[in-house]
Amino acid sequence: MSQTFRPRRSALYMPGSNARALEKARTLDVDCLILDLEDAVAPDAKDVARQQIVEAVTAGGYGPREVVIRVNGLDTPWGEADIAAAVAAGPDAILVPKVNGLADLERVAHRLALANAPARLKLWAMMETPQAMLDAAAIASAGRDPNLRLSCFVMGTNDLAKETRARLVKGRSVMLPWLMTCVAAARTGGIDILDGVYNDFNDLEGFAAECAQGAEMGMDGKTLVHPKQVDACHAAFSPSETEIAWARRINDAFALPENADKGAIQIDGKMVERLHADMGRRVLAIAEAIAARG
Ligand SMILES: CC(C)(COP(=O)(O)OP(=O)(O)OC[C@H]1O[C@@H](n2cnc3c(N)ncnc32)[C@H](O)[C@@H]1OP(=O)(O)O)[C@@H](O)C(=O)NCCC(=O)NCCSC(=O)C[C@H](O)C(=O)O
Ligand SMILES: [Mg+2]
Questions:
Q1: Domain final residue pick, 194, 210, 237
Q2: Taking CB atoms and a 6 Å cutoff, what residues make up the pocket around ligand 1?
Q3: What pLDDT, in 10s, does the model give residues 152-172?
Q4: Same structural domain for residues 132 and 254?
Q5: How many angstroms separate the CA atoms of 195 and 10, rounded?
Q6: For residue 219, what is the domain's CATH number?
Q7: d(Cα 142, Cα 145) in Å, to the nearest integer?
Q8: Per residue in 196-208, pLDDT tens?
Q9: Pocket test for ligand 1, best of 225, 231, 233 (most atoms within 8 A of CB)
């Protein structure tokens, strides 16, 4: 498999105004860090938060963790300065909040081009408005245009609840159509998608159930609000030993000379096709990428 995988099982938010959290993040076993300038930061603290994030990212020390800065929207008093500061700091990605359509990403990508930002600086998009749910496929199409840099969707279930008036209920029955629509859209754009946050961070049982649900839906990982959520998240979004062993068995079976011209075979009484071998190779590639991360 030629594609290389970057594990995005966990993405921990932290307010840019919280210097202790920015420091502690260097020691946490998470795949991604989202350093927030938007909703977790009060208006009076925006300038301090921006400065602290620039200093933290410039100083580095985040190791293999993917560093993402969530900026304020361009329709706010802080958006332009946030983007300029993020480009100067050089994170892996900028997370654009409250994306309503492709034009929102085009505006940010245009500023990155004007600032000569390196191509490795990607955009992530918050999917959290009613309009974004209706236009998810169009927004995801940015993933096919290198100029638009889109590499990941992030579900914003808190804002979705606020804007639609849907309730955040256990099991998320009311949100499932939007979540699955965004999963499908992300795949059409060739990008990753991360599930929304679980606010009740002391309820680890409920959190684990929601992680399992997200993994079943095809999410690549989940956004987190507290370090205590990391372990359950990784357990849900890492391939299990059983999945790895099954993937190896499928690969080995199709590698046998007697199966060379077969499209479908049986293993342990189950029908297995070459598409399952493709899926298995993906599982193995993810497992290898996680192991390589250490
Ligand atoms: C929710 C919190 C404010 C709780 O913080 P605190 O009271 O400090 O918790 P603890 O005392 O239990 O903390 C224990 C130690 O862990 C560190 N800590 C806590 N949270 C984080 C974190 N997010 N990142 C890094 N480190 C963290 C504390 O510093 C303690 O460390 P130590 O000093 O060594 O003891 C807090 O957890 C928090 O601010 N969480 C993130 C909030 C946030 O960023 N929200 C924005 C995104 S959520 C969202 O809305 C998504 C989307 O937009 C949507 O619409 O849905
Ligand atoms: Mg939000």
A1: 237
A2: 12-15, 20-21, 24-25, 36, 39-40, 126, 128, 156-159, 196-197, 225-227
A3: 999 999 999 999 999 999 999
A4: no
A5: 9
A6: 3.20.20.60
A7: 5
A8: 999 999 999 999 9
A9: 225
